Structure formats: structure tokens, C-alpha cells
Amino acid sequence: MKILVIGGTNFIGPHVVRYLCAMGHKVTVFHRGKTIAELPSNVDHILDESLQHTFGDWTKPSTLKGDRTHLDKFKNKFEEISPEVVLDMIPYTEQDALMLMNTFKGIAQRVVAISSIDVYRAYGVILGGEFEVVPVPLTENSPLRQKLYPFREMPNRPINTPVDYEKILVERVVMSDADLPGTIIRLPMVYGPNDPLHRLYPYLQRMDDNRPAIVLEESIAQWRGSYGYVENVAYAIALAICDERAKDRIYHVAETEVFSEAERITRVGKIAGWQGKVVSVARDKLPVEWKLTLNTEQDWFVDSTRIRQELGYKEVVSLEEALQQTIDWERIHRPKEPEEFTVSWLLDYSIEDAILTKLV
Ligand SMILES: NC(=O)c1ccc[n+]([C@@H]2O[C@H](COP(=O)([O-])OP(=O)(O)OC[C@H]3O[C@@H](n4cnc5c(N)ncnc54)[C@H](OP(=O)(O)O)[C@@H]3O)[C@@H](O)[C@H]2O)c1
Fold first, then answer.
1. Tens of pLDDT along 219-235?
2. Closest ligand 1 atom to the C-alpha of 13?
3. Whose CA is nearest to atom 34 of ligand 1?
4. Is the overall model pTM greater than 0.90, yes or no?
5. List of residues 6+ apart from 68 with CB closer than 8 A
6. Cβ < 6 Å from ligand 1: which residues?
7. Which of 69, 90, 169, 201 to mutate to test the pocket of ligand 1 (most atoms within 8 A of CB)?
8. Residue 54 pLDDT grade (very low, low, confident, very high; cuts 50, 70, 90)
9. 3 vs 348, residue with greater confidence
10. How far does the centroid of ligand 1 lie from the alpha carbon of residue 348, in Å?
11. Which protein residue has the closest C-alpha to ligand 1 atom 44?
């Protein structure tokens, strides 16, 4: 099968491309050429397009970068390739999705779009914009957020997310075109080598600094969210691309074992060879200036039965191996900027020491 991937060269994408190639498919990736990945040599890249602008009898040539903001200008190239399935790794806005569907209508037979479990109302409750705690585990039919644009008011938006980021609108557009069927994959928190958010790093740094304890506010210690290892998530995406039964379907992908944050960090510590322990502390024992902005009464984990039953998905890498690979990578790729990582609820060492002293 011929598959076109929009993106595909950063974190999750290269693993998807490798699985697709290993399954015998012909893959072309469309991107700007800013991010380089080691992909199989038979993968084609669309990085730019030569254009001719005619002004009277004068023709000016120019080159257009493979940027999705002008995806429609590459239509001739896409027609030449005539992919059966288009995988969009990076649809962030309604406009992205509209241009995607308009460009590939009449060319492709199906579009697979990567979404997130941030579409659920549960995420709105965690952020504080919505109030009624939603039962977990979430299924693909759980209620969606009522408040759109989750990152609009955030002072520090996650890396690369535009202000009008909204996967709910992306999904709506991709799933509502009778001429071009869609598949949606909602991802959990993804970790692994090359994680741009360095999800494990802040904990690992403490472990490698031989901290005796990692202090977590009680409700965070107990909070449970869904995670997925990058290679496993990529394998699930590849299955959904190749299996016709995924047409018009929405799937979660996530690990089946769900741990509290305290349990998860303890597991990481065990693999990392850490001798310390996670200490859960009541909110009133923490400094007053330390305010938790998230509502951790709401857990955020999903049931991934559907993709397992319908597409036969199961993890290709075990949890232990996944954590080991991530730890190995994080140890040699420390984030350059503190804002590159997401864990905002860790106290600094001196505050942590003061709390621990009071506890004994
Ligand atoms: N990481 C998580 O925990 C998580 C959780 C839930 C959902 N997701 C979803 O996963 C997806 C991101 O995965 P990933 O970063 O691993 O994807 P990826 O496909 O590995 O990397 C992003 C790709 O997009 C290309 N790109 C960026 N801006 C572009 C533009 N304007 N035009 C054309 N190409 C562009 C980059 O190449 P160039 O730089 O060369 O253009 C790169 O190939 C997103 O949809 C995100 O919402 C992630």
C-alpha cells in the first residue's frame, strides 16, 4: 500500500514509518526538512515544491517549503504519489484538518489523524475549566470537553502547540466527510527516547542526584493517568493505517496497567537503581506559596479494549523494557531548557529537605 505521512520525523512518527516499511508498504513523508530522523532508505521525502509565478511575459521561479500551512499547493505532487492512506501526525487546529481533507479528497481513500485523550471532559476538569468529576476509565464514548481551546489561556503552552490548538475540532472535521473516511487515534501521555517533553527526566534527575526522597503532594501521589511507550503507540497507529476495519473508528491506545504517580515513580526508581522513596505529604504540610493549579481529584486513564479487540493490538515492548530504554536515553539527553519538561509539581531540593526534616 502507498502511504503518505504528514510529519513523521520527530518522536512518534519515525517508529510509525519504520513499522509501515517493515510491513511492506511504500511510505512518503511530507515535512519542512527541519527535523531529521533515521528512516529506512526507501522512504521518500517531500520537502519542497518548485513553483513558477507568471507576471505578463516574465516568469519568476520560487521554492515552497513542505509546510502544512500550504498543503494544498502540493496537490499535484500528492496526485502523482496517489497514496491510499494519509497519516496526519500533526493536525492541531480546525484549519489544519479542513485543509487536510480538502487536499486529499479525490486522491486518498482514508485519512488517519493523530489526536489526544485531552479531548475528554476529564481533561477539562483537571485543568479547572470544567467541574463535575467524570468516571474512569474513559472509553471512546466518554463525554468530551465543553470548553474548547484548552491551551489558549495557558501562560506556557506545551511545545509547538498553536493558540487555536483543538483536537476536538480536528476530529469533527476528519470524521464528517462522506467522500473521505477517517480514523482517529487518541494518544495518552507518550514517553520514550526522543520525548520532546522529557516526561521522566525531572524524577530521574532526583534519583541520579541520590535524593533520599521525592516529595509529592498526596493527591498527586495518588493520581492516575494513562501512558504509552512510543514504540507501542507507533505500532498501534501502523495497525490502524493498514486495517480497513479501522475506517470510521476512533481508538484509544494506552498501557493496560494503570499506576498512581507514586507507584510509577517507584517503578522507575527501581529500574534506575535508586535507593530512595516517594513520600506523599498532605497539602497542609506543604508551603503555602506552593499551589497546585490542577484538579487531581480527576484521574485521566482510558480503557484500550477496543483497539485490542478490533485490530488485535498488543504491546510490542514490555513496560520494564520501555522504562529502561527511556531511562537510558534521558540520562544522556538532558533537556536544554527547563520549560522543555512538563512536570511542574516538584519542589526544589531545599524546600523538600525542610519538609522531610519536619516529618521525622
Ligand atoms: N507526545 C505526547 O505525549 C502526545 C500525547 C498526545 C498526543 N500527541 C500527538 O502526537 C503528535 C505529535 O507527535 P510527534 O511530534 O511525535 O510527531 P512526529 O511526526 O514524529 O514529528 C512531528 C513532525 O512534524 C513535522 N512538522 C512540524 N511542523 C510542520 C509543518 N508546519 N509542516 C510540515 N511538517 C511539520 C516535523 O518535521 P519538520 O520539523 O522537518 O517540519 C516532524 O516530522 C501530535 O499530533 C500530538 O498532538 C502527543
1. 999 999 999 999 999 99
2. 20
3. 31
4. yes
5. 6, 30, 90, 96, 99, 100
6. 7-13, 31-35, 66-69, 89-90, 114, 116, 187, 189-190
7. 90
8. confident
9. 3
10. 31
11. 90
pLDDT in tens, 155-192: 777 777 899 999 999 999 999 999 999 999 999 999 99
Model pLDDT, residue 154 = 81
Enumerate the domain spans of the chain.
Answer: 2-193+227-258+300-328
Q: Indicate whether 51 pLDDT > 90.
A: no
Residue pointed to by grid coordinates 477496543: 306
Residue of the nearest CA to atom 13 in ligand 1? 12
Distance 193 CA to ligand 1 centre (A): 15
CATH classification of 2-193+227-258+300-328 is 3.30.365.10, yes or no?
Answer: no
Residue 295 has pLDDT above 90, yes or no: yes
Averaged pLDDT for residues 198-220: 94
Tens digit of each residue's pLDDT (9 = 90 or more) over 56-73: 777 777 788 899 999 999
**Which atom of ligand 1 lies nearest, measured to the CA of 118?**
6
> In the prediction, which pLDDT does 52 show?
67
What's the rounded mean pLDDT across residues 117-127? 97
